[in-house]
Amino acid sequence: MGRFHRHDDGTAHAHDGDGGHSHGTPDAAAAGAPDHSGYQTSVERVEVLEAIFGENDRTAAANRAKFAAAGVRAVNLMSSPGAGKTTLLRETLSRLAGQLRIGVVEGDIETSLDADRLAGFGAQIALINTGNGFGGECHLDAPMVASALSRLVLPELDLVLIENVGNLVCPAEFDVGQDARAMVYAITDGEEKPLKYPVMFRSCELVVVNKMDLLPYLGFDLDGFVGNLRKVNPAADLIFASARTGEGVDAWCDWLRDRLLRDCHADRVRRMRRV
Amino acid sequence: MHELSICASIADIATRHAAGRPVSVINVRVGQLRQIVPDTLVYCWGLLCEETSLEGSRIIVETVPARIRCRSCEQTADVGDLPVFACAGCGGIDVEIVAGEEFLITSLELADAEAEAAADTETGTGADG
């Protein structure tokens, strides 16, 4: 192990062997290294090897266990700002009211505007304003969702839809305890985005391609978009939709019901039989 | 964009492992597929550490390129700058990521308290140079 030390200009490095402290030599001076030979620093190194998201991931696991215990499936819904998450959710609640008991965790940096738009469909809604953080968080993390879950009556629900903060970067980094990640992608955002934001596109089980009603008016290359998506995520399900006209919304509801909840209901039946 | 909250997590972990000893460097390993901007992380670290026991410490970021392994032909390759998650050898898309998702603190370097004090004194007297 080399000997580490730090200079006044902020650089730090190690010397291999015992006799490596040679900053006073002409060569070192010529190379711009400050003369620091008066310092006799010996650095102790502490091995850590600890995941920086460890605390978040532990809380996410606890959220996941809570969902499982209540027989609830949870979807983490992500998108850029303005892609149509809330409009799609509104249509979803309207179609599934009376069929599925739905809870919504609504993440927004400020305001209850989105939560207000979702009121009136019989869903339980827990709003999280992330603006209380250090300048406003750009994503939901597991502790925020845990706090929202304490305001939902999980055993009375089948499905929790977590509407993340509109952002194509940060939400992909934080596990919140969901069973599946889904994206709402608006074709107004352009076909190259899967290559620019590969982490989020790769993280999803489903991409809802929204605003398809605008296709005739945009120079959007749909095949190019799908090709780009397949480069980063060959396996994701794809639904072409327009939350505004209702196109594809039934397919999305079917995905929630069949793809996501089927296993969950099987679990519940098994549990009931055991009781 | 979330580097400030990440710095808070790093500070918690570093403070726990330092156990009251002064820290000079926090070595962090960041995979290419983590959307962490090293410069922003370093900048936010300075803000977050002001007037804490970690003030004056620095973050050094080691980046790890993304690598995928093809489950069909077993070939392993770097992903490169264009994020294409397909096997360069056989074109297969059934690939697993074997590197590039790391995000951890690997180690701390502790400052020698006496040397730090000496350095501070020396810096203080020679700061107008």
Short recap of the structure:
The complex is a heterodimer of chains A (275) and B (129). Chain A is of the alpha/beta class and 275 residues long.
What Rg of chain B do the Cα atoms give?
Answer: 20 Å
- β-strand number of chain A: 10
> What number of domains of chain A?
2
Number of DSSP E strands of chain B: 6
> Structural class of the helices, strands and pairings of chain A?
alpha/beta
Let me know the CATH homologous superfamily of the largest domain in chain A: P-loop containing nucleotide triphosphate hydrolases
The strand order across the widest sheet of chain A is 6-5-7-4-8-9-10
The structural class of chain B is alpha+beta
CATH topology of the domain at 3-66 and 99-111 in chain B: hypothetical protein PF0899 fold
Shape of chain B: elongated
Q: Can you list the strand order of the major beta sheet of chain B?
A: 2-1-6
Structure description:
The complex is a heterodimer of chains A (about 280) and B (about 130). With about 280 residues, chain A is α/β, with parallel strands linked by helices. Chain A folds into 2 domains: about 1-50, no CATH class; about 55-275, P-loop containing nucleotide triphosphate hydrolases (Rossmann fold), CATH 3.40.50. Helices cover about 35% and strands about 20% of the residues of chain A. Chain A has helices spanning about 25-30, 55-70, 85-95, 115, 140-150, 195, 200-205, 220-230, 250-275; strands at about 5, 10-15, 45-50, 75-80, 100-110, 125-130, 160-165, 180-185, 205-210, 235-240. In chain A, helix 8 (about 220-230) links the parallel strand 9 and strand 10. Chain A starts with a strand and ends with a helix. Chain B has about 130 residues and is of the alpha+beta class. Chain B has a domain at about 5-65 and about 100-110: hypothetical protein PF0899 fold. Chain B is about 35% helix and about 30% strand. Chain B has a 3-stranded mixed sheet, covered by helices on one side. In chain B, helix 1 (about 5-20) packs across helix 2. The interface of A and B includes residues 10, 51 and 174 of A.
